[in-house]
Every structure is written in C-alpha cells, then in structure tokens.
Amino acid sequence: MSMWLHRANQSSLLRSTGADRCKYCGIRVDWFDRYDTKRIPLTPEIPSRRVPARFQWHVDKGVAYPGADLRAGGYCRLPHPAVCPALEHPDLPKELAELVIRLGVRMHNSIARGEFVPAVVPTVEDEVSEPDPEHTQDEDGTRHTICYHGTLRLAPCRLEDIQCIAALEDGERCPNGILDVDEGRWEQIDVPYAPGRAGKMILTQSDGRMWVWSLTGDFNTVMRWFKQRCGDHGQHSAAPDHGPREWTEFHVLRHADFIVTERPEGYDPPPLPDGFAVHDGPRKRQRCAGPGCFNSTVSPVADGWLCWQCSRVAKRRERVHRRQQKSHSGQ
Fold it and tell me: Environment class of residue 118 by beta-carbon count within 10 Å: exposed (0-12), middle (13-18) or buried (19+)?
C-alpha cells in the first residue's frame, strides 16, 4: 500500500517514521519538523500549567513551534534534550527537575532489566537533537558542508553521495542523489569562531579558512537541499520522507575533523559547446530614422529602419499622397 501526503500538509515526516526512542536514555520521543527546517525530538503531550513558558512547544500541521498553543486545551510538549535524564541539568526549574528524576528512574530500571543499552553520554544537549544518519562518512572521513547566507549544515558524506530521503510507492528510499552542480559552487569562507585553546588550534591548522558548497539557487532550490530531496521529489512532491534528514548543524569544536581546507575537484558544471556564448555584452542599438523618434532596437536592421509607430505613420502618409496624385491626374 502506497502512502502520499496531502498537498496542504506542511510536513513530509510520517508519524510512524517520527516515533523513536532516545539512544542515551531510552525514553520515547517524537521527531517533528521545526519551523526553521531542522528537526526536534519532543516528548508526548503533558499539561502545560506547570511548565515554564520558555520550555513549551506545540505542533501545528506537523510542524513544531516554540510557545504554547491556545487551541491545545492546556497541553504542550517539551524538547527532549531539556529533560533527558542522561544529561546534567544544573539550572532546570523545580517542576521539570522532578520530571527528570522520574525519567531517570525509568531509564535505570530499563538498563537493569537489560532492555536498553545506552550510547555514550553526549557532552552537549545539541547532540541529543541529532538523529542518527543511515550511513556515515566516506572511508577517508570526508563530509562536505553546505552554506546558505551564513547557515552551515554538515552532510553525512560527500555531496555526490547524499541520497534523497523521499519514500517511493513500494516504501523503499529514493536512490537518486540531490546534487545539481548548477545550483551551487565551492567557496572559501572564514572558519566560525570557537573559544578557548581548542578553537585557536583549529584556526591555526586550517589557516582560518574552509571550503563549503555555497547554494546559489532560488528559495525553492535551497529548501529542496535542506529537506534533502532530489529534483523529482522537490517542492510539489506528495511523497513522504523515508527517514530523518541527515544534515547536522555545523559546530566548529565538534566537527573540526571535517573541515575541508583544499578545494574539492570535479564539481564544475559541464563545459558549454563550442561557439555558444551565454552573454557577449550589450549590442549596439539602432535608432529609428523617423523624425523626432527615440525608439530603438538591438536586432540587426537596415539603415533607415522605422519603428512600428513611425512605419504606420509613413504608410498612412503614403496612402494620402497616392490619393492626392490620383485626384490631380483625373483633373
């Protein structure tokens, strides 16, 4: 059975695909598309009366937004990294600290029963918000970075190996890649600032510069890249996502090993055929020969060319002149 999204749906992530468990604590989470094209793991709905406003999230048409939703009937969702019991939460409000304690008991009971084996505890909460990609970087450890107006996203592999995440009619993942060399170019930018000694070492090793694939297309093209879709499953496709997007928000200290310091080769657009020119400069404009007319054209025309207005006036005058000649000859 094939499944397709309604054309008015704002998210392409199916609920069956978005349901998951945190790899650090084993607690159930629901992945949702965020308003800024990222994805976020949220808890099930809970009463919002005891949740501080800055922790409240709501879902509208499959997209997660911060803040409370008045239509939710007094319920909201929490971002899971804020209450994940595998993390330290020194500044958590008292109401949520009690929730973290209960979740921690549930996590330790699952570990004791052998139902769950936690992954290595992350050092920052952002890592909890990153779904595991289906494939890792290439054998040489290369992962390319895309850039759009200062926004940096780290790919799971090289550009040519990034696979579309749309689901086909048979449920399989689309095998197409998302790369189109006409929609971007390699540019060298400054490495984002990172504090401390580690940040200084990264700047020294890379000379403070890194190569990124800068997107140059229109808004729809950029959204296609961020949603990790091929040209066949772009903006107007009704195909759902086969799995989570594999982009990671670039962080200098965590992703220093993936900084590309030499320009990658083999991504230039194909050469144009011989004799084909995209633009050879402005052509010389030929001005209309009509008296007092300032119309002109860039098309090749003969000397004495008249624009359509002056040509119509000239033909009318010629007809009047012929009638006058006939009348004089008849006399």
Answer: middle
Strands (DSSP E) along 108-183, which ranges?
A: 145-148, 151-154
- How does 38-72 read in b/e, with b if 16+ C-beta sit within 10 Å? bbbbbbebbebeebeeebbbbbeebbbeeebbeee
Residue 326 phi, psi dihedral angles, 5° rounding? -65, -40
At 1 the pLDDT is 44
d(CA 262, CA 43): 42
Query: Model pTM?
Result: 0.62
SS3 88: coil
Q: Give the tens place of pLDDT for each residue, 177-229.
A: 999 888 899 999 999 988 888 888 988 888 899 999 999 888 888 989 998 99
pLDDT at 44 over 50: yes
The sign one gets for the Cα dihedral 216, 222, 226, 232 is negative
Does position 330 have pLDDT exceeding 50, yes or no? Answer: yes
C-beta atoms surrounding 110 within 10 Å: 17
The whole-angstrom separation of Cα 151 and Cα 311 is: 56
Q: What is the CA radius of gyration of the chain?
A: 31
**Side chain identity at residue 288, one-letter code:** C
Buried b (16+ CB within 10 A) or exposed e, 94-104: eebeebbeebb
Q: What's the N-to-C CA distance of the chain in angstroms?
A: 92
Task: Look at 69-73, 128-132, 197-201 and tell me which has the smallest mean pLDDT.
Answer: 128-132
Output 272-275 pairs: Cβ under 8 A, ≥24 positions apart.
none
How far, in Å, CA of 147 to CA of 260, rounded? 13
